[in-house]
Specification:
Length: 377
């Protein structure tokens, strides 16, 4: 793909986040937020959660560096201030101290993997700005996780109720009878926190256990990582997340590349190879791996990061086909601001921050030379 084309596309993605963001300080509940999901019907437009904010922060930091425009760095600052409001520090909730709530300061729970991404956003903001507060926030979340974030087997909980008596919990999907495949992605954050601090506690026995379990129980014979029932260890007939994490493994294979840096077990690289083999075997004629284009930057990023380490090769034509498919999902710049530059994630005509942020980070890495994010280095 031509570098100019790729960077122009990335810039329009970055501008979508800026244009969708509320910077009106008079509306304090919306200040620093943006849309995660945008449908044509204004009633089908939903503000992002903590994990959306974290990846948007990384994307804005990267865009600021590559394009040399302060507006992106300002946007990162707006978003991180909103993310701060979700971290719980009430002395009246000791079991929640340091946790990061899902969507607002009133949300009565968090999905553990989502909250980890929020902490990851704090860490990357610290690295970019040197502001010590954000490193400490990431560490305080980790302290909460090590106390309350894992089940008796050492696998992260699907969700944790932070206000157990709140009747609003009923609307949240809390599948603690399941062990989510998406939890493999948590390895990335702990590895990066270790790299930043040198504290081996962050990649201790729990970290190794998650990596081992991800390979031995979560990865299935066909190469894909799938959620399993806690009691039986088997894949349920109905995926609780409707197949959102297949080709998009929620950065789990990247997490195994990180784990390999600490515990150089060949089975970690074998699992990554098995996954990549499975994904590319299902690549369609139109270049997509599945209906959701979020899988494309996730898979291509693992391919890029694993080069020279994982014994897997694929033709350049397959990679280019995937890239072309990705950019064909981008809304044109003459669309209204809530769509222009974003990715139409599933082809069903809605813009989504998930695929847009992942694509932004990958394109700025590959074509803009910013290697700071979503890396195993």
């Amino acid at each position: 793909m031509d570098k100019g084309v790729a960077l122009d596309s990335a810039k329009r993605m970055a501008d979508w986040f800026v244009n969708c963001m509320s910077t009106d300080m008079e509306q304090e509940l919306l200040y620093g937020t943006f849309y995660y999901y945008v449908g044509r019907d204004p009633k089908r437009r939903f503000r992002g959660a903590q994990w959306n904010q974290a990846f948007a922060v990384m994307g804005m930091l990267s865009a600021g560096k590559v394009f040399g425009d302060e507006k992106y760095l300002d946007a990162a600052g707006y978003i991180i201030r909103e993310l701060k409001t979700l971290q719980e520090f009430s002395p009246f909730l000791p079991h929640a101290y340091g946790a990061i709530r899902e969507q607002t300061a009133k949300t009565p729970c968090c999905y553990v993997r989502d909250a980890l991404s929020g902490a990851w956003g704090f860490l990357e903001y610290y690295r970019a700005t040197g502001k010590e507060e954000f490193l400490r926030r990431a560490e305080m979340w980790t302290e909460w996780f090590l106390k309350y974030g894992m089940d008796e087997t050492g696998w992260p909980w699907w969700a944790v109720a932070l206000d157990p008596d709140d009747k609003g919990l009923a609307k949240w999907q809390i599948c603690n009878d399941m062990q989510g495949s998406f939890q493999g992605g948590c390895l990335n954050f702990f590895y990066q926190l270790y790299r930043e601090t040198g504290n081996k506690k962050y990649v201790g026995g729990f970290f190794e256990h998650i990596a081992d379990y991800f390979c031995s129980h979560i990865q299935q014979p066909d190469g894909f990582f799938r959620t399993i029932a806690r009691s039986s260890g088997k894949v349920p007939p109905q995926d609780p997340q409707n197949g959102h994490h297949r080709g998009n493994d929620d950065l789990g294979s990247l997490g195994l590349l990180c784990a390999y840096r600490i515990y150089p077990k060949p089975e970690y690289l074998q699992a990554v190879k098995k996954f990549l083999t499975a994904v590319f075997a299902k690549q369609r004629e139109d270049g997509h791996f599945e209906n959701s284009c979020a899988a494309i930057p996730v898979v291509l990023n693992t391919l890029h990061e694993g080069a020279g380490v994982v014994d897997f090769t694929v033709s350049d034509s397959a990679v280019q086909a995937a890239l072309q498919a990705l950019l064909l999902r981008q809304y044109p710049e003459n669309e209204e601001k809530f769509f222009a530059g974003a990715l139409n994630e599933t082809g069903e005509d809605f813009a989504c921050a998930r695929s847009t942020s992942y694509a932004l980070l990958y394109l700025l890495k590959l074509y803009g030379g910013d290697n700071r994010f979503l890396t195993c280095k």
